[in-house]
Amino acid sequence: MNVLIKSCVVPVEQLKSNIDEGQLKLKKIERIDSHKDIIGQERAMKALEFGVSIKRKGYNIFVTGLTGTGRNTYSYEIAKEYAKNRNKPNDWCYVFNFKKPENPKAIKLLPGEGSILKKKVENIIEKLKVDIPKAVSSREYDDRKNVIYHQYKKKSEDVINELNDLAEGYGFIFKQTDKGLVSIPLIDGKPVKESELDNLSEEEIDELRENSSELSMEAMTLIKKLRGLEEQLSNRIKQLKEKIAFDVIDFYINPLIDEFEENKDVEQFLTELEDDVIKNIEEFLHEEEDEDTLQKLLAKKKASDDFFIRYEVNLFIDNSDKSGSPVVRESNPNYYNLLGKIEYLNERGILKTDHTRIKPGTIHEANGGFLIVQAKDILQSQYSWDGLKRALTTGETKIENINKGSVVAETIKPEAIPIDLKVLIIGDYYTYQLLYVYDEEFKKLFKIRADFDIEMDKNEENISKIVSFITHKCKEEGLKEFDKTAIARILEYSSRLASDQRKLTSKFNEIVEIIYEADAWAETEDKKIVTFESVERAIREKNYRNNKYEEKLQEMFSDGTILIDTSGSKVGEINGLAVMDSGQYSFGRPNKITTSTFVGKDGIINIEREVEQSGSIHDKGVLILCGYLGERYAKNKPLSLTASITFEQSYDGIDGDSASSTELYSLLSSLSEVPINQAIAVTGSVNQKGMIQPIGGANEKIEGYFRVCKEKGLTGDQGVIIPHQNVVNLMLDDEIIEAVKEGKFTIYAVKTIDEGIEILTGVPSGKKDEKGNYPVGSINYLVQNKLDRYANINKDFE
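Above: the chain sequence. Below: its structure as tokens.
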């Protein structure tokens, strides 16, 4: 192994970052403050704290981050933390609008006063239903009514006497009957009976008719006077009822007005209620029902119930049992759940409603506090999203229905309620960017972004916090105690999830899963404490549950269904590495990449692109190869080349540029006709200057190729080339580390294409001398000669 190759070998100690168990300090803790001890999310927490504390319009919060980083839990916890130190929000009631019934009034009350007002108004109405009829049937009422009747009777008798004096001159007399006041003819000074009228002659009948007509004309003034007396009697009786009722109503209403004297809206409502009761006093009086049928009684009862609804208080929002301001999480923020609705009663296909059927949404329940919703949920309903923005913009919320779909006999427009609300929307970065760019109102309403990271620094402070987290979780959930070896393994697993030796993952849901499962395996093995072995088994078993597809691929590599060489050398062929993701499990899959080069001017043909199986990033990586070849080999001559590159036996879409260096190595091998060592697989991106760039999934790619090599037999020559920047990302499985120690497998880290091609071919890459020529026999020399020959051939053909 030459000096260059040796310098590229990654030492065993750099293949994984181990945790020193001796430095772990296990604390006995009673509790962890879920807000103050949030681990590794300082930036997000500062943004959340500022967002929930600032009391300015538009400073709502959009929380971004991946699932599992604690964004939901922490957002809820910090909102609760701030909410408990705030005042209770007000109660809200909807009441009947006696002046404009179609516009129910909204009344704001102090916390707890809403239920008091509702109950006391209900009690008053029920008492009035009993006491008003009692008062109207009392002896005092009868006595005063009799006085009025006597006064009327005397005056009406005087008028009737005047009428009779007038009627006597026309041969008539007036008498009071069931049908009212009627005139009766006189014959010989005596009233004529109906039977006697038949005995009169036509002349006598005509005379009576003429006299009756004249009498009617003359008596019109006195009859009007009599009717006026009747109307006066009716009004006096009604006034008497109202006076009696007013005293009863005043007895109940005045104390309630005094109780709410600071609230002018309540005072106005009670005053208008009192006036309405007096105006509709007859509704409170019992009528004779002896002869009514059951159907009539039921109809009367329903009509009565419908009438008395006007006096009900709709306790819209009741905050009597709250401590601090509310924190509401709406899991289904459709239009009505979020913004409230007006319910309708269906009567024979006709919809009817009233103020008692106005129902709140979570925006009202959270008023004065915090509302938390998921972005994906609220954005699925355009009406909900627009309604929320409208409420936040105007500072008030109007309750109105959409898509009624039936004939509406009665509709109402409730008075709007002002809102003082902080909204937290939880989503991902992509959704945030879309809204920020395409929704002009969004950036005005959600000025705070709290971004939860997926990783944190692997320092002493964060390690200590995770140790405390594990200890607290065990105590909180009643799990077995974890010893130092178990916690050290969890910390290693955390770095593996972060794919960085210097980092720990912030996706605590995955850590918690391993804690639960390790405890379960310890219970199965009848262990009193959880050790390294239990955690290791939990990780292995979790992988096993999800790696069926990987095992199926391994079988195809073993039986030769998928062609892959792990030994020997071939021209224009190389093993590339890709990552497959099956949901909870990701793994590496080796791919054979082949290149064919020949005379032409088409440049590099990406077969995947030609058949529309490659993504734009992969296409970009292939095009970069043309830039590299032109920069290095075609400064004095045109690049005359046709090359086709493909991933063999790949039938799915391909994207990413992590195979661009691999494709370039294969291309250089084909042009130089120097074979590539098939025992070494490659991953890494490359730029036009030949510099190797980092990629993702380094651990999975290395482990995927190692398993194939192990299945086919480890020879000691096998290994993987990775970008030198990815060394810090290595958190490899112990089995691979052991193989490296034993010299059965090697990890190389390279900075340039020249370094990589020397490792793959064993031939120096070659550097230009002062005259611009490459050393004879070097890779670059052979490639340059081949391209010059192609250029001359193309020139001869032209």
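The chain has four domains: 16-33+456-546, 41-89+322-452, 96-321, 552-797.
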